[in-house]
Design brief:
Layout (H helix, E strand, L loop, with lengths): L13 H14 L4 H4 L5 H16 L6 H14 L3 H11 L6 H8 L9 H15 L6 H9 L4 H24 L5 H4 L5
Length: about 180
């Protein structure tokens, strides 16, 4: 649900229906952040392609690190929709509820590895004060073991979640507990 008209899975036809069916088969249901694209199925397709590449394709970051970035960026942007969804996803990798809650509240707990702390700091800085990012920030990531392909992926995931946060916030994409849970991994 959002502030604009949406075409739900029960009303969809053509390419949109095909995309919804694929999402339901793959993920179990269609997230509200994707339904908001229903008036532009080509944008939905492009959005999904980018999401799948950044969050699931091979690369030097673990799934947990990718979800950590999603939560950090979304908290800085105060996008509760994305914090809820990606904290839920992160909970599959972090089995410490207190650590997960601290991250979802915008903290960078000392119990994170130094590499993950550096990752979170970069994501937060690039989101909250992008013009202040400098070569020193990239060097910090390198010192923590991130190679340049990893740094590119980190940057792209941060940029992607800033994009998605603005879709959710700018169109009033809503959620409840039932909408956040129950997705297949």
């Amino acid at each position: 649900m959002s502030w604009i008209k949406e075409i739900g899975p029960d009303e969809a036809e053509g390419e949109l229906l095909h995309q919804y069916r694929a999402l339901e088969q793959q993920r179990g249901k269609v997230a509200n952040i994707l339904k908001v694209h229903s008036l532009r199925p080509s944008s939905l397709q492009a959005h999904l392609a980018l999401y799948m590449d950044l969050m699931f394709a091979s690369g030097g970051l673990s799934r947990a690190q990718r979800e950590l970035i999603a939560v950090v960026v979304s908290r800085v942007n105060q996008c509760n929709y994305c914090v809820a969804h990606h904290a839920e996803a992160l909970s599959r990798y972090l089995r410490d509820p207190a650590l997960l809650e601290a991250i979802a509240l915008g903290e960078v707990p000392a119990s994170l590895t130094p590499a993950d702390q550096a990752l979170a700091a970069y994501a937060s800085k690039l989101t909250g004060a992008p013009s202040t990012v400098s070569p020193d920030d990239i060097e910090t990531l390198r010192r923590h073991g991130y190679a340049d392909p990893d740094i590119l992926l980190i940057n792209l995931i941060v940029a992607y979640f800033n994009f998605v946060n603005r879709i959710a916030l700018g169109l009033g994409v809503s959620f409840d507990e039932a909408e956040v849970s129950g997705y297949r991994t």
